[in-house]
Amino acid sequence: MFYSMVLELIKTPDEAPGHYDYIVCSNKAIGQEAVAKSLAPVVSESTTIVLIQNGVGNEDPFRAIYPQNTIISCVAWTGAIQNTLGIVHHTKNENLQLGLFTNLNVSTEIENQRLKIFSDLLSTGKTPHEVFSPSRLQTARWEKVIWNCAWNCLTTLTRLHTHEWLNSSPEAMYMTRTLMGEVVAVARKMEVDIKDDLIDRLIERILRMPSIGTSMLTDSLCGRQLELDVILGVPVKRGRELGVDMRVCETVYTLLQGVDLGLRQGGPKST
User: Fold this and answer.
1) Which residues are in the Ketopantoate reductase C-terminal domain (predicted)?
2) pLDDT at residue 267 above 80?
3) pTM value?
């Protein structure tokens, strides 16, 4: 069981007493530009921004708004179950992958020092983690989004857990692999090093696990806005720009945009 101590609680950055050395964003990656702008009161040129979020392209709004700051990008693999309000049971699946989103305006020495300090803080807290090179970290981001774009999106559309979805029809596995394959093709067009066996490994991994409901499915069932853009929207946009055939991803993305709009509007209107 994990315990925490709240030293100071503020509702918005405007209420903060000053600037911080590190700002950790572990929120859902929704409205990234607005979130980045909201941090201005607590960011100085020496502030390091840490993004622990799913998706790809997460760093871009922060880099545009804070061109002089170090950004540490992170990929989290965490298993947890919440059956009771306020009580989260963590499973054995825990790992944090982190690396720099390189800033040419900051010296390599300073960026590496800031990364090491944050890694040391994680070690002090006994958080399992790996430090990657900038290019390897972006590969890890795409590997995770290939996982998320399938399971999050397809379970949300069908309201089925992972194994239920895969067993729902003879075509379910084929569609899942096709969706993943389209995102793999986009990543490779962007010169991201995706291994040939990645899809097989991700399928094997989900089959070894108990059937799970994803975080996007949970958000949908709870009436919350979906973390859709960084998980599927960015891959679709990049695919269009690069001429990749994205017909399955585009179909799923179009349908989920409708689901998301309905959630933001409070559900279907009565007839």
Assistant:
1) 137-258
2) no
3) 0.90
